[in-house]
User: Fold these one by one.
Assistant:
Number 1:
Amino acid sequence: MENVLGKARLRFNVEVLLVLLIVMMGGGVLGLFVVENNSILVISPDSLKGKKDGAIGNFGVPKYGGSMIGNVIYPEKGASACTSFEELGVSFNQYKSSPTPLILLVNRGECYFAKKAWNAQNGGAAAVLVADDREEPLNSMDSPEDGKGSDEYLDKISIPSVLIEKSFGDDLKNTLGKGEKVIVKLDWTEPMPHPDKRLEYEFWTNSNDECGTKCDDQIDFVRNFKGHAQILEKSGFTQFNPHYITWYCPKAYILSKECVSQCINHGRYCAPDPEKNFTEGYDGKDVVIENLRQLCVFRVANESNKPWVWWDYVIDFHTRCPMKDKKYNKDCAESIIKSLGLFTDKVQECMGDPQADAENPVLKSEQDMQNGHGPHAGVTSLPTLLINNVQYRGKLERTAVLKAICALFKESTEPPICLSGDIETNECLTNNGGCWQNTEASITACKDTFRGRICECPLVSGVQFQGDGYSHCEAIGVGRCRIENGGCWSETKNDETFSACSESQFSGCHCPTGFHGDGHKCEDIDECKEGAACQCSDCTCKNKWGGFDCKCKGDLLYLAEQDTCIVKNASRFDWFLTLIALAGLVGIVGAGYVFYKYRLRSYVDTEVKAVMSQYMTVDNQTEDQQPLQQNSV
């Protein structure tokens, strides 16, 4: 009897799990993403020229923001790439010396997509094109599930892989079979939309730390990417949001032991059992509650203008509160929340009551988004990274993800962290990138960017340079003469400095007075030789750097304004005559003043009184006389 009941119980558990799986699939958790296509441009031969689409593989390292031009090769042996080319005795060494990378075309089928990419990479391929074996819409190539024997190579794949349509694959094979050379360009510059000034990305994750390789990959990524994420967020370059997947229990099984142990809020939000054993360890509902807590930690931190604290909490919780140590609980979590300066009561208020027979607003919002009720398609698996509402394809690894994020910023606007040595190559270090430079002042027009370099005249110490950036840059505006004298001529001789740069002129170089030239080279003018100075008959001219000196013969004194010579030492009689002349001049001026003060002023006063008498009574008239005059009128 017990054996029969045990079998019935086991059958019931299996049925419940199958139903949960069906619900999970129907709810969108295992639905398909919209495929992010990258452009494949066939450069040659002419018969195939044009653009084709390809679906980026969900493993390896897509070259976001870049492109690759290469020769397409279809192996005569091992076309499925499911066996090592070395084992098959196939070598691509003849292509390794070519400056054009090798792009290997392989067939779909017989083994995992990732296995094909791994064998192609070991064979020397720079990228892989997988030709579909059926006519169907393109779908992303996913990585193998845990326990499928891929652990030894999956994280080592560093080349990009692209799935192409069967018809395009057939065309390539036929063309290559005729001995024609096929060159294609793989372009990853536009697989994700560009932002305006800030990039938005989401990470769908889980607080479960006992789910094998997937859980390890998630926490390793969070730990390694935390520093980058916090720098980007604090500088305003990105906006990050974490998300967590749950599913709901069928109504018919809400009261079952399985749903009760895996779900909260009466079967509305569920998660798998961490150990896949309903009788030991932690339950799925414990995972759901911690997922909810981590969401609320983010919300409370975001309200405090510190959203980046989420990264600290997740790492600390994983380190201090692991399931294996039986610390995966509320008390351990709240001790971390307090240590990060957040309020536990606000987090608890956000979480609500997990026992309530009602929807939880936070988790309801998460379920809506994972089912595709939002700007992006439904989420299929954990972990999943969305950048600008488009799924990131490739290895979930610090450098690879940072490259994908950096590729979405417009050239020369990317965060400084995108220009670090392990992310990109600084092309300005080689021949200054072919841009203009002033080696003496250490000024260059070469500006390193994530995608390469641009030649752009710089802004130095508040002074703007203008030009084409390649062969010419010139300082303009106020303060330009402070920097290498504005690029103009300048020279010092005999403690005198002359410059062709003038602060009163915002651009250009002009030789100063006493020099001639184009402003970049100035030479002294010999005014004496040219007859432009010292024209008086008693003068002698002597040229000097930047000017000239005039001298008079004998004891004469030179007056530069009049270009004339005058007597320098006069006799006593000359001085007497000079004094008489000065006295006469003073007398004339004094007489003029007296004439004005008395004679001329008296005349003006008389005229003014005569005019005023016509319009008003005169001062010497009596009050008795005024009425008589008025009556007589």
Number 2:
Amino acid sequence: MATEAFLLLASFLAVLLILAQPLGRLLSGIILDRAIAGTAAIEAVLWRICGVQMKEMNGRQYLLALLLFNLAGMIFLFTLLMLQGVLPLNPQHFPGLSWHLAFNTAVSFVTNTNWQSYAGESTMSYLSQMVGLAVQNFFSAASGIAVVFALIRAFSRQQTDQLGNAWRDVIRITLFILFPLSLLMALFLVSQGVIQNFTPYLTATTLEGLRQTLPMGPVASQEAIKIIGTNGGGFFNANSAHPFENPTALTNFVQMVMIFLIPAALCFAFGETVLDRRQGNTLLWTMSLMFVVAALLVMLAETRGNSHLPLLGADSAMNWEGKESRFGILNSSLFAVITTAASCGAVNAMHDSFTALGGMIPLWLMQLGEVVFGGVGSGLYGMLINVLLAVFIAGLMIGRTPEYLGKKIGVPEMKMAAIYILITPALVLLGTALAMMSDAGRAAIFNPGPHGFSEVLYALSSAANNNGSAFAGLSANTPFWNLLLAVAMLLGRFLPFIPVMMIASSLAAKKTQPASTGTLPTHGPLFIGLLTGTLILVGALTFVPSLALGPVTEHVQLLTH
């Protein structure tokens, strides 16, 4: 089992890094505002049609453009879902959604969360899936990447307030990065058996002679951007555990690689853009080491399983509950770590059925802010905020003014970094407290004791960090939960945009200072250790008490019974 785990992790990282490097160079070209070869004529026509000005924006203008763009998308999607019952491409004649479910879903997909309080095959028409959900999968991913583009430009420029053009960035990211990758991915998925059609649901007779309804639909196209954009919302309720979404071990492996592809490529793009590849490699090493440790811990927890199972007649203690036999324990464990580290939320196993410690690691990865690769764009800008924090702490230790990439880090940047770091923990912990204190919140909990608390904590952690995965056992499709989680998703996505863009504006206005003998090297093993320690320390101080009430207590109960 240990050899299989090593080979799986090694092959995954090898394929990921091989694919991420050329994509990183492509992304760097867009950050530097260079048109991709052969697209200049296409762009000229697009800018004219869309009315995009070539003038660059300052931080405030860039932020306002992204907020307005996403607000328009949310209003459109909410309206579409409410009117679904009278719109075409609805062969099953599904009615429009309730106002609170439509609001929750619109917020969910606009914020790149894809939390689903519904079963897709029994709720959403083909039009809603394609024109509503899949379109927002593209735009929400592009918005996150655009924010990190602005922040990277702030490090590579000096004495300016210009951070690029938000409209141009979103269009380029969507048309020249997300769309081609999604097209290739969709074609691959179709070749492996993922369905893509507009056929009404089929009725089949099983070998036992029972009648079974087989849901159909344009699955492959949505599956592709769901994975590549780290969105995570499944066409079906079972998500990537459903054979129509993820039929084989090969599609499972490719999906795992594609979840991390853009986050890893952005690290290479960062190094290319700031003209120091070591900086991007340092971030990539930090992410990779934390990821490998997390994956091994979950694999160990799930293979050791539950010692009570053999006493109940099971062949072994390994925890097979909630896992697809075609993927196995190791692939299911790895997928769980990838999807919660990357802000994706897609699942190929039931996280609620993991052991207490096996479920705690994905929960904690979300609570770290999903900076271990993280969502497309959001993972890297979250990591860079933590880099500034690590540099500031190191500067205090040696009594020198902290700086990163020649930019001095002062009080204004640290204030914004502190606000950024506090936003999601406040949403998670306050939301969890509100749910546990209210009758409407507790009424949704079907599992008593620490596991029920873990389900609530997981739901708020998933929503506020824009992940979208969930522990089962929580009946969240109620007005209380739909509104609570929608607020957590909305604030967890767009409030962090504000300090990030303010930091970008501040750094871009500063002059780049040449390195001196007292400059802290921000590459190499020492800084990787410092950055890793900072990430773990912040996460531990914030969430260890709540984790002790949930998965830790559950694990202790297992050992003592």
